[in-house]
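Quick one: structure for this chain?
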Amino acid sequence: MSTNTYTVTGMSCGHCEGAVREEVSQIPGVTDIDVSAQSGRLVVTAEGAIDDAAVIAAVDEAGYRAVRD
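Got it. Here's what it folds into:
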């Protein structure tokens, strides 16, 4: 298992969190997603190595910007 944390900008509500969660959950191997609009944090846990580019692209697809902490 591996866990990476990202800072996400542009989220302001539960709907935003849901959009990010939906996109990131489509990445193969992802087992857990913790996202908070209030803190601007996204924590992704996966069975193997996490593809940062895939996570950032998924957040972008949801309409937000992410950088790995």
